[in-house]
From TrEMBL:
GO molecular function, one term: DNA binding
SUPFAM superfamilies (alphabetical): Sigma2 domain of RNA polymerase sigma factors, Sigma3 and sigma4 domains of RNA polymerase sigma factors
Biased composition (Polar residues): 99-114
UniProt name for this protein: RNA polymerase subunit sigma-24
Biased composition (Low complexity): 206-218
The organism of origin for this protein: Nibricoccus aquaticus
Domain of life: Bacteria
A Pfam family hit: Sigma70_r2
Span of domain RNA polymerase sigma-70 region: 23-91
Family designation: Belongs to the sigma-70 factor family. ECF subfamily.
Amino acid sequence: MSPPDPQLLRAARAHDFAAWDRLLKAHQLPLYTYIAELIRDDTAALDLVQETFASAVRHLATLRDDARFTSWLFGIAHQKCAQHFRRARRTDARFVDTSSLTPVSDDTSGSPASTDPLANIADPTVDDPLAQLLRREDASALFALVEQLPLPQRSVILLHILEDFPLEEIARITAAPLGTVKSRLHHAKRALRQLLTVPPPPTTPSPAAAPSANTTAS
């Protein structure tokens, strides 16, 4: 998302309710999509969007760089999601992040560990099932796969692919080191590719119809 109009933010800082209404309308759907896909609870997601904006209204004075308003807002939303999980005391195994076991290096000079697995996503000749899915913009299929990722990986992939945040901004949003964000993104993309290449389970053929009782033998 592009940053909001600086004049709009100045008006919001001056407690202009019309300005806040415009900011809400501009960010409501992206925030809801991120939160809903992260916590998998549509009703709670609506509540967390409202909590996010209420917190933003109270703490806008702490924002030092207006150009980062959107990532700052998503950072608040991310914190609200974390609080939601703590309240719910979730123990689902999917929320355990193991990506830090093999971290991706912060070095972006061209080493294999720092190469973006989707660097060729715009190249239609690359035979990559994940790239093909993203080019089709099949959101429902993508969300169905993302739902199966561990929570930290799910967060990073949603912010990177769905909201198009750069990795540095994702690190700020999730309060994680840049190397950890790169590692989570690397493992998330690899997991999504594996899910895409798993063949569907074989279908069980329906039982053959029993011969009719009044069928005569030839």
